[in-house]
Amino acid sequence: MSKATFRERARYWFDNTMSRGTASLIGWLAVVSVGLIVVVAGLTLWLAPNEPDGVNGPGHVLWIALMHALNPGKLASDKGSTAYMAVMFAGSIGGLFVVSMLVGLLSNGLKQKVDRLRRGRSRIVESGHTVVLGWSDQVFTIVAELVKAHASQKGSVIAVLADRDKLAMEDDIREAVGDLGRTRLVCRTGRPTEPRDLALMNLATARSIVVLSPEGEDPDAHVIKILLALAKRRGVHPPVVAGLASSRNIAAARLAGGEDVHLVDSDDTASRLIVQSSRQSGMSVVCMDLLNFDGGEIYLRTPKKLVGVTYGEALHAYQTASVIGLRRPTGVVLNPPMDTVVNADDEVIVIAHDDSHIRLAAGKPSMEESAIVEAQAPPTEPERTLLLNWNGRAEQIVRYLDGYVAPGSVLEIAADHPKAGTGLAGLRNLTVNVKDCDTTDRYALESLGVGLFQHVIVLSDDRFAAHHADTRTLMTLLQLRDMQSTLGEHYSIVSEMHDENNRALAEVTEADDIVISDTVIGLLLAQLAENRHLADVFGYLFDSRGSEIYPRPAASYVKTGTRVHFATVVESARRRGETAIGYRNALARNDPPHYGIVLNPDKSEPVVLNHGDSVIVLAER
């Protein structure tokens, strides 16, 4: 290889200096300007040594050359010989190019600086802030719920790090959430998988970290990589809550993040909620009320005055809060046996509208003994369920449903999905039949004999984009609603959707429950970001083992049409080994936003429960 020439070395050095940015370019422009001024001054002293009039030496000539280079307009006021005017004209033309280049460089450099600031690359100087890593539609739900949770706090901060434009993130969140109240939103552009970008979020002083499962292919791989980056950080590690799209990746994520990371299995949680909602009308609304920060919230309390009393007695201990279980050193138990004694190391789990409402009641509650009804729970019988459409979590839904129904129950799957009904070997209680069907076609639905089923589940077809899939689901719901009205049939309808904005449209169909899976997961992540100790409580609620939420006929608890205090309903449920937490008014079942459900009413509140109304209880199956 030939040796580099002097010209090549000089050009290489020049290229390197030019690539150093705006400051280097301005430096070169200054060198050119000095050269121009010196040349103009030298030519003036040589060709017109006594011009202009009143010149006082070379220094004065240099000043005149500088003024012409910076302000070419001075040429108009010059007078002198042709040689002098020619030199000043050349200097002014050269100065014109220099000034133009200087303005362009300064403008470009300022633009680059503004763009860098706009991208949000400065380190956050906050403490006690909640950090959200990643971007998906769940971010809007999480921010909205955290704003509600921090409404009474000053200096609350939510920091979001995602590989998106900073201003675009802020605009999208403010447009979706609206007024942020006292909470400040700080967005930074960067990759949550990069340690250098994570350093921007000042994680050592953060209150908690929420890791979102992004949209697109293989989202869990992205979450696991973020958990690895967080685990490798030095210093303080705040609590981490992460959402995963698939149950298959839980073990890998647990290994990546460590035991202190709480993982939310989106598929599993949504599947359980869909199954429970299909069997208990209003279940999804109850869960949404418990998960959001608008209505009843779940709190943990350690009241010394309840130590030594039984769980059954503790049910009447609070006037404006509902006891639902105990958090013991051995774990969480909801609706334990009524004779369970509250120990000193137990925490009482209560539902309240605000922590200020959790106060022990003075005296015994008013109850109408004559209104209490003793009724036996009806025996379980085989059921018929219709499942419309198919997606990646459908197999899990079928298996959970198999654990609920009585032996001899039938599940009819109607879908034109190529994988419909696959992977269902080993079911114990369900007999499964699969039919090819376009679920948006009225005649195809009528051929299924929908009136023969007690429950209908409408899933979102994963072959289509989320918006299109929701549109198809709406079409199916409208067809089912019209068939019910025309044929006089009655069956519960539960549907799955992606976009919370479509709930208002779906209300026209009067479906019993609409499960917005992304919203449910977002609410759960927000709750755990505020209090990760509630993870076991919500895990228990969504588990098929132990006590679950059931809306049961009000006539099984109190005399219908009779005015009673809600404490009477609580007492009636207590005698059945159940915990009453609210009721549902059947006449308002289609009225948003609560659809007739009232959670945690004041125990002294008088209520009249009629035929068709329900009492919401925690009970064993």
Automatic annotation (TrEMBL):
It is a multi-pass membrane protein. The keyword Membrane applies. The chain crosses the membrane at residues 21-48, 83-106. InterPro entries: CASTOR/POLLUX/SYM8-like, CASTOR/POLLUX/SYM8_dom, NAD(P)-bd_dom_sf, RCK_C, RCK_C_sf. Residues 283-366 form the RCK C-terminal domain. Keywords: Ion channel, Ion transport, Membrane, Transmembrane, Transmembrane helix, Transport. It is found in: Endomembrane system. It comes from the Bacteria. One of its GO terms (biological process) is monoatomic ion transmembrane transport. Gene3D superfamilies: NAD(P)-binding Rossmann-like Domain (3.40.50.720), Regulator of K+ conductance, C-terminal domain (3.30.70.1450). PANTHER family: ION CHANNEL POLLUX-RELATED. This is Voltage-gated potassium channel Kch. It comes from Nonomuraea angiospora. The lineage of its organism: Bacteria, Bacillati, Actinomycetota, Actinomycetes, Streptosporangiales.
